[in-house]
Amino acid sequence: MPLLKIKEFDPNYRESFEGKDIKGMGVYANADEKIGTVSDILVDEQGHFRYFVVDLGLWIFGKKVLLPVGRSRIDHTSERIYTVGMTKQQADNLPEFNEHKEIDYNYEEQVRGVYRSEAFLESSAPVDTASSRPAGATMVAPIAPPKKSGNGNGYDYQEEPALYELNEQDHQTFKLYQERLIANKIRAKTGEVIVGKHTETETARVSVPLDKERVVIERVTPTTAGETVALGSDSFGTTEVSRIELYEETADIHKEAFLREEVRVNKVVDHETIEGEETLRREELDVNTQEHPNVERK
């Protein structure tokens, strides 16, 4: 199961904390001993807190280490995170966190190995005031690492609640939920336009004027009719032929194709804004002091 930075998991994660940010809180071993500052938070794919990334820059320049959430106590009033049983020396023994490298099982086992060590467990045990030593120190033994599973990176965080569960004593959280309006767009097909062409027929009529030649033979009486003319002896019997060519026009009607017009098919987008409204619910905190008015609300 890969780990993610909290902003990668939820860019608006501050809304879950009423605008407050755990990043930037100081990390203290006790009330007066500051170890470092929270520079980031690592969560799993379900959004469960797994580690605080602690920058030890106050006393070790540039080194960052991982603090499992189960070994911490968040004080929202003072905006501090207290480590459970950690000292500066133990923080120095933790392997350095490199945010540019992938967090794999082997690296996490190195981190968990420090928190499982006998010295660490003894320092986190409750103190027996009579003997001035951790109560039950002789009975404390290192935690055996859980067996690797086949899921994700081979580790189940639920198998070590001492490291990864927020105990009720140190962490009491009451979640308030609120609805928000999300506006999305869904692109749906509303129809289609099919553009094609077909052929229609019609009967066209055209008139063509034609010219046709013909011969007209007309006998007329000459104006000198009856007058004597002198003819030779061979005038009669001579064959005379007049040749006239006749022409006429015929109609030549045929079809030819030509470009009548062009049709361009384009698609344009019309924009419109649709407003919608919904009733949103929000949970508010009800505090009943039950005759104990010394409750500080922030």
Structure explained in plain terms:
There is one protein chain. The chain is of the alpha+beta class and 298 residues long. It has 5 helices and 9 strands. The protein has helices at residues 6-9, 88-93, 105-116, 118-124, 161-164, and strands spanning 4-5, 26-28, 34-43, 49-55, 64-68, 72-75, 80-83, 127-128, 133-134. Strands 1, 2, 3, 4, 5, 6 and 7 form a 7-stranded mixed sheet that branches. Residues 126-145 have low confidence and may be disordered.
Question: Summary?
Answer:
This protein has 298 residues and is of the alpha+beta class. It has 5 helices and 9 strands.
What is the arithmetic mean of pLDDT? 78
What gap, in angstroms, lies between the N and C termini? Answer: 36 Å
Share of helix, binned: 10-25%
The shape is rod-shaped
Strand residue percentage? 5-15%
Largest sheet: 7 strands, mixed
- Please provide the count of β strands: 9
Q: Decide which structural class fits the backbone.
A: alpha+beta
Give the low-pLDDT segments. Answer: 126-145
Radius of gyration: 53 Å
| Total number of helices | 5
Order of helices and strands: EHEEEEEEHHHEEH
